[in-house]
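Protein: ABC transporter permease subunit
Species: Paenibacillus plantarum
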Amino acid sequence: MNKSIYPFYFSIGALVLYLLFFVIPSFMGIYFSFTDWNSYSEGIEFIGLDNFRTIFSGNEKYVSYLNHTVTFTITTAILKTGIGLFLALILNHGIKGKNFHRVVIFMPVIVPTLIVGLIFKSVLHPEFGLVNEFLRSIGLEFMAKSWLTDIHLAFKSIIAVDTWKGVGYIMVILLAGLQAIPDMYYEAAEIDGANFWNKFRHIILPLLMPALTVTTVLNFIYGFKVFDIVYALTNGGPGYETEVLYTGVFKEFSLGRYGVGTALSTVMFLVMIVIGFWAVKWMSNEDEVGK
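Structure follows.
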């Protein structure tokens, strides 16, 4: 009896903390999303779906939040996976100094996102930033831009900075997947006269699919939850050009519109549930195929 309940006692503390700081606040947030909770009135009244109607009524501001979040998520997922796979394929071979290169590429991952944002806010400064100073020094002054204030470049700059920071994490996962592929497959393919493309298409890609599934799920979850890199670089500006869902939540709470802010959070919560369900189902299918 003692042996059977021993692990349960160890989990009580974690369960209590999880309930107090995640489950209960989540349900409270869902409830408040159906109310007119704000900083301008003392009472809180139930208003049904009015907050959600406000969000999905076609208001340009809220539509931009969703469009930017989806664009950011898909674009960064493709860039991080593509570049990460390319780097993993290179570093999987016995090139000189591969361990050093792995450390250098992974290093941005361990730097706090806010620090990265502040550094690149200085690097991309239109007058004194290193990027524009370098372009001017080599005679390419016409390429010097207002990277974080130009409405056509600000969002692209955020995507580029986020890709630079996160690609090392994806590379490590894919590199582990590559190293798990037995050498005998490559040897058999070489005996049959297969070139690199044949090996990539028929060996690497199918056997790397579980790792690619994991990285895709992680990229999508991170992309839909993005906040800090956007806040640090542009704070959603210029205008609404770089606003995402969580900066929108932040702005709504800053304006005292708590009901609308929690409604946006609830929408995000439902999106994450759908993504999580899809991810678990996809990974289960991959496991069945593997068996």
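Remarks: The CA atoms of residues 116 and 235 lie 14 Å apart.
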